[in-house]
Amino acid sequence: MKSNISRSNLLKKFLNTRNLSVQITSNLSPEDNNLQVNSDVSPNKWHLGHTTWFFETFILEKYLDSYQYYNPKYLYYLNSYYQNKGNKVPKNIRHTISRPSYNEIINYRKIIDNRVLELLTKVDSEELNFMINLGLNHEQQHQELMIMDTKLNLFSGIEDSYFRKKDFDFLHKKSDAWIDFDEGVFNFGYDGDGFFYDNEKGFHKQFLHSYSISESLVTNGEYLEFINSEEYNNPNNWLNDGWNWKNQNNITKPLYWIYIDGEYFEYSINGIEILSLLKPVSHISYYEAWAYARSKSCRLPTEFELEHALNVPDTTFKNVFANVSNSFLDCIGFDKLNLFGNLWEWTNSAYLPYPFYKQDGGALGEYNGKFMNNLYVLKGGSSFTPSDHIRNTYRNFYSPEKRWVQSGFRLAKYN
Amino acid sequence: MKSNISRSNLLKKFLNTRNLSVQITSNLSPEDNNLQVNSDVSPNKWHLGHTTWFFETFILEKYLDSYQYYNPKYLYYLNSYYQNKGNKVPKNIRHTISRPSYNEIINYRKIIDNRVLELLTKVDSEELNFMINLGLNHEQQHQELMIMDTKLNLFSGIEDSYFRKKDFDFLHKKSDAWIDFDEGVFNFGYDGDGFFYDNEKGFHKQFLHSYSISESLVTNGEYLEFINSEEYNNPNNWLNDGWNWKNQNNITKPLYWIYIDGEYFEYSINGIEILSLLKPVSHISYYEAWAYARSKSCRLPTEFELEHALNVPDTTFKNVFANVSNSFLDCIGFDKLNLFGNLWEWTNSAYLPYPFYKQDGGALGEYNGKFMNNLYVLKGGSSFTPSDHIRNTYRNFYSPEKRWVQSGFRLAKYN
Amino acid sequence: MKSNISRSNLLKKFLNTRNLSVQITSNLSPEDNNLQVNSDVSPNKWHLGHTTWFFETFILEKYLDSYQYYNPKYLYYLNSYYQNKGNKVPKNIRHTISRPSYNEIINYRKIIDNRVLELLTKVDSEELNFMINLGLNHEQQHQELMIMDTKLNLFSGIEDSYFRKKDFDFLHKKSDAWIDFDEGVFNFGYDGDGFFYDNEKGFHKQFLHSYSISESLVTNGEYLEFINSEEYNNPNNWLNDGWNWKNQNNITKPLYWIYIDGEYFEYSINGIEILSLLKPVSHISYYEAWAYARSKSCRLPTEFELEHALNVPDTTFKNVFANVSNSFLDCIGFDKLNLFGNLWEWTNSAYLPYPFYKQDGGALGEYNGKFMNNLYVLKGGSSFTPSDHIRNTYRNFYSPEKRWVQSGFRLAKYN
Amino acid sequence: MKSNISRSNLLKKFLNTRNLSVQITSNLSPEDNNLQVNSDVSPNKWHLGHTTWFFETFILEKYLDSYQYYNPKYLYYLNSYYQNKGNKVPKNIRHTISRPSYNEIINYRKIIDNRVLELLTKVDSEELNFMINLGLNHEQQHQELMIMDTKLNLFSGIEDSYFRKKDFDFLHKKSDAWIDFDEGVFNFGYDGDGFFYDNEKGFHKQFLHSYSISESLVTNGEYLEFINSEEYNNPNNWLNDGWNWKNQNNITKPLYWIYIDGEYFEYSINGIEILSLLKPVSHISYYEAWAYARSKSCRLPTEFELEHALNVPDTTFKNVFANVSNSFLDCIGFDKLNLFGNLWEWTNSAYLPYPFYKQDGGALGEYNGKFMNNLYVLKGGSSFTPSDHIRNTYRNFYSPEKRWVQSGFRLAKYN
Question: Angle D2-D3-D9 (CA atoms, 0-180°, nearest 5)?
């Protein structure tokens, strides 16, 4: 358990990260910030509180003698899924908690920030540094969620939804090229000096048969052709669960596409735009990605194939994968950094433990391991992901029907 | 269709009523005013908007040439159940509409108020006066709902809920006395000069067998004895639907009673208080009232028996029924007026049309008639009811399992 | 509690009634007799057992010393809704009980029949006679249910459903005539010597305003015109609950109508037939009947109006109401008798207690009183009703959306 | 597509397999054979029909000119999940189809059997042989389902459930021994001459880190200790989905354990027996197996680890895995054969395609590939599995919460 980050850098990261979360919500009204349109998402107010609660319960309570909680009732409101941390408000009714208000949560953040900063100044401990770094990485995950959630929350409203009037460039490119990789036994997992989660820890080996991956993500234009073809409604192209999901939810297009008078539009972070055919198709489920791939007699890559591709130096692929846009979070005022990808990329790998994976006991052990069931791994990162929160070994994971994730996919095949 | 109200009185009533609705919400935060904990209740923000929409769609759109709606999108958000007024946001997701904000709705109210006042100054029409009066009576119904809804919304939160730190006196009284009434054919329904709803219109006759009604409402103390006795869990005392409702919802006490360490408390508009045994039991369902009455070998009175009791001059009963407290709405600063009752009183009468009832066509016809199914009539009025919104013939109605209504009951029997 | 039936007549009735129930099922397979397509209906096998259980638990267990139940496990399977009689298999999963088989239930019936007959021979008691008569009336209610349920059960199958190849004549008649009745205070309820249920007991008075009732039931042809008109899909014609029910269940026609290639057919007890336009429309809900009546600016009659019409001697109406067909049950081989009606007739009266109604304590008290909530009264009787199970005061009752009842309706209005 | 089975052997297999299915149902009543207590299971009558429909639609319809279906309505009833074969009765309401009866289905089987036998005599075709062999393997899967389903169907009834009064020996053994395996790249999948399914086709390579597997399956006694310890209710031992499943379904023990007056019993194919502590624990979910393993700081083996263990010659493990009991199906009168295991064994491998897996187009392509989502692989075979339906490469698969499968598990760990 080492953070491998200097105290001064940790301090800067703390200030920047904590500040960024508030900035994400700052142009929104109190009502906007308490929205929760379904049980996938949470109110921004809750995200702001929960990421603060994390510091309070995992750090302050541990390092400060006879620590007095800011407000013991918050523990019940702000816990997410930690069984070891007591009862909690059921996720789907977080919007029913009006008190504390947004302003009170902002105040709560300030007070906890000061306590953490004071602690950080006084105590020099490897473990403390790790825990603070973990809290900040945790908050970065919630930053992406806040943008995902706000996008969906406002989509359901009656007003033209918008977030910020500044676009960021997606890669507009389509290519038919394939990049080939040879078979072999390769190392996977994180074995470096920086921060990582337990689910990506340590080298282990996998045998890969030789394979090819498409250079580009599948585009809106290509997906539109799929929709307009007979293949889209052919059950032979779908997983059984996918076909049932499609019919029960009357799915006819990606989540944020809008069809008006014969034309397709796309709801974006900036409101409604004409559908750009060269942008990668986004906000689609694993089921839709799987069906598209099968309709092309291809398949989705595995998580190991994508990670291997990222590990191989000097491939065209690496270029494609990395040559990206400004992230949304950069637009708020932070340095431009390259992201790994435009979109999180679905893989055909179930989210299961790596060999030698060891789940911690206690509350921190609830971070990853207990979710390893009925989910799929996504690799890369999206323009909603903080750019210093990305690495080759990162394993994101979602349920196959989820679409509010900024997800896309590329094709794979065996040689 | 006559309003029988002078224009100057109508003007005063308009100003007072419109102002009162805003006052009810003024001590609450934007988050509070957008709460909706279940599909019975609505956000206060929506109530404020909907009661304004009523004036816009039923009056301004009709009386002003080529009327331009303030915002056509509001029609979709602010319609309640009027099929004749187009599509609408499903009731259970009104909380997902963050825009317009509370402040924008307040602004909307001001603008529509000015338009109505200008119209009222210019046009002197019996029909217009009636429609404005109808709109104000409609708003008074929503004022009661706003208080009921806020009480429930805050009850689910994590903070000590409170509304205003001013109590109003419930009648603290228990008596074993019965008041007797003779049989006969009597007139029912409204046949006077003031405002009334179509469901109470015009005289009709009913035969009543001689009966007795208890002088007092059943009290918390009496209901507590019921809970503590074997009778409470004896299925023979319950309607079949009531027994299933009780078991499926694990009902063990009235909605707002709280049981802590062997003692009962009651959540009130002012927060949590020790249960007062002499106050009438409130916020209970028809099922609970019915079961209590049967356990005492009595029954609930019919709507006609209660209305007849109100119509009979000089009875002790009339006294009891009328000798009441300050209403909650009075506490906000309006004149003290006598209410009819402390609580709406459940009757054993299904909400069905009076003889000769004629449902209007069009949107106004949707006001009452289409709801006459599987509901029960309540008579009287509560301390949440605006005091000038009460009369002998008023027919309130709710589904038998509803408990967020400020409801109570008294016993009846045949002689 | 008097049965007012001679022992010899009771004996004959016992033999006939018990025999008839078995006959109803005798042309059906074991699989047919264990069908249960939804939770409204029950398997015939269960009906045969439950009506026998009634004699065992309410009579044999009471009159015979140290009575040994035929099989104590049957008590759990064969209880319907009697809370006082212990736990029971939930209604919706009665079809999951394969053992006892149909043949075993037939054997159970024989054994219990013999025990009852022996008891009846030995004991001459007014109370015993009443209880046996009650058991037989109870069984007659289940005979109608068995035919209703079988009709629905087979409707869902893949084979041409049929029951018996013998038709019975519905009244084929349409008239525009109205029959008028004068206002007054009249007696209602049963005050005679024969058998009756507690819900119809004893005279009480009601005031009726003068009214008119249509001579004929609404026909298939008239209802078809309604469906084909704009009125059918006009929400203003429907109760709010009815409109929601119609939309949620995608209702476009009565339950048993079938629409193939532009033509309407009707599924009957004999299989699929061409829709007869002059037959009364049947198997429709209260909601549909209500909507039809409102679209004609009429209403449904109240239960008191229909009962009064039956009580008035020498009216044309009485003729119409009584001049009927063979009942289905007659077809099985019993004497022809006039029924009151072709179909049970929906009324606009909620099923509520009569004045002075006194619900018994104990299990028998569960027969009627505890269901008096959210149901509507039907009067008359249908061709599925045993003909000696019909009388002026009979109060049948169902939930407003139910359609597997053999129900129809006529129109009413005030003069 | 080769069957690699001689025509005479195929003929014998056809006669034996088709006969065995009927034998499984022959001691049960028509009502028993139409039971369906939930949507996991199907009526035996349906299984008998569906396995016959398979021969009719996939073979007879293809090989016989202008083939006339026995009864076209059966296509609608007897299709399971083949989208390419038209509409079908929804799975959960198969019990609502009383016609055809059991006897009619038996007759249907005889007629189709004769047609297939005649075809087999006349046509000598590699493809036909394969298809018939596929149909028989398909039927063997349903034979196991029939026993699983009957066990569950009768468990819900009120009678002591039983099937046949002949026991078969489970391995009664507990050991603490571990068997170790070295790391390496190994071949997986079926590459032989016999019958196989597409999901196990062809060699591919996987790298395995060195690991150990427990010699014995976890026993009832060991699992009982788990239940009685604090670990059972410690959320840290459970997958998140598993913990929610446990709480929502109030899981306190394996499916067929019964707790009476402080003692545990087990419902078996022969009725209720005292719980045998040395038998392997059975009928538990993946979630329960996973939790047990984690509570012991172990894990479940992967499908590759188990298959590799089976492939390694001369290991103690092979002995353990194979040295088994009579299968249930043997008890009916067929030759005794060794089974692979007592119980299907849960693995920690999601059911995903092997490298190079190619899903067929058309209806046969629906056999396996479309289900590869949110399921886990089970290896081995159970005493309900026909003994010639078992092989090293067999991949069985179920959803992680299913318990009516005859499933158990052993532990694994890395060295």
Answer: 155
Note whether B76 contacts A31, CB cutoff 8 Å. Answer: no
Helix residue ranges per DSSP H, C68-169: 72-78, 102-122, 126-155
Four-residue CA torsion sign, D212, D213, D215, D218: positive
Q: What is the pTM of this model?
A: 0.91
Q: Chain C within 8 Å of B205 (Cβ-Cβ)? A: yes
- Kindly determine whether residue A242 and residue D373, on different chains, have CB atoms separated by under 8 Å: yes
Q: Do C96 and D37 touch (CB under 8 A)?
A: yes
C76 at D interface, C-beta within 8 A = yes
Tell me whether strands A412-414 and A211-214 are parallel, antiparallel or unpaired. antiparallel
D77 interfacial to chain C (CB closer than 8 Å): yes
Q: Per residue in A32-53, is it b (16+ CB within 10 Å) or e — as a string?
A: bbbbbbeebbbbbbbbbbbbbb
CA distance B198 to B359: 7
Q: Do A236 and D362 touch (CB under 8 A)?
A: yes
- Spell out the residues 6+ positions from residue A403 whose beta carbon is closer than 8 angstroms to its own: A254, A255, A283, A284, A285
What residues of D are in contact with residue C46 (Cβ under 8 Å)?
Answer: none
> Can you give the pLDDT of all 415 residues of chain A as single tens digits?
455 788 999 999 999 999 989 988 988 999 999 999 999 999 999 999 999 999 999 999 999 999 999 999 999 999 887 777 777 899 999 999 999 999 999 999 999 999 999 999 999 999 999 999 999 999 999 999 998 999 999 998 877 665 554 444 555 566 688 889 999 999 999 998 888 999 999 899 999 999 999 888 899 999 999 999 999 999 999 999 999 999 999 999 999 999 988 999 998 877 788 998 988 899 999 999 999 999 999 999 999 999 998 887 655 444 434 333 444 444 333 222 222 347 899 999 999 999 999 887 666 777 788 899 999 999 988 878 887 787 889 999 999 999 999 999 999 999 8
A293/A413 Cα distance (integer angstroms): 10
Distance from C-alpha of B64 to C-alpha of B216, rounded to nearest angstrom: 51
For every residue of B7-53, which 3-state class applies, written as one string? HHHHHHHHHHHHHHHHHHHCCCCCCHHHCCCCCCCCCHHHHHHHHHH
The amino acid that residue D290 corresponds to is: W
Residues 366-395 of A with CB under 8 A from D: 366, 370-374
Q: Test C370 with B294 for CB contact under 8 angstroms.
A: no
CB–CB of D277/D228 below 8 Å? no
D241–chain A Cβ distance below 8 A for any pair: yes
> Is A16 touching B (CB cutoff 8 A)?
no
A414 contacts in chain D (CB < 8 Å): 355-356
Contacts of D92 (CB under 8 A, 6+ apart): D36, D38, D39
Q: Do B31 and A101 touch (CB under 8 A)?
A: yes
For residue D55, give the amino acid letter: F
CB within 8 Å: B400 and C349: no
Closest CA to D283 of D170, D116, D137: D170
Cis omega before residue D254 (within 30°)?
A: no
Torsion from C-alpha of D397, D403, D405, D408, nearest 10 degrees = 90
Q: Give chain C's length.
A: 415
- C359 and C370 in contact (C-beta within 8 Å)? yes
**Rounded Cα–Cα distance for residues C232 and C47 (Å):** 37
**DSSP assigned state of C229:** S
The one-letter amino acid code at A308 reads H
ipTM value, please give it.
Answer: 0.91
Residue C140 to residue C197: CA distance in whole angstroms:
13
Asked if residue B100 has a cis previous peptide bond (ω within 30° of 0), the answer is yes
Q: For residues C181 and C311, is the Cβ–Cβ distance under 8 A?
A: no
| Whether A and C touch (3+ CB pairs < 8 Å), yes or no | no
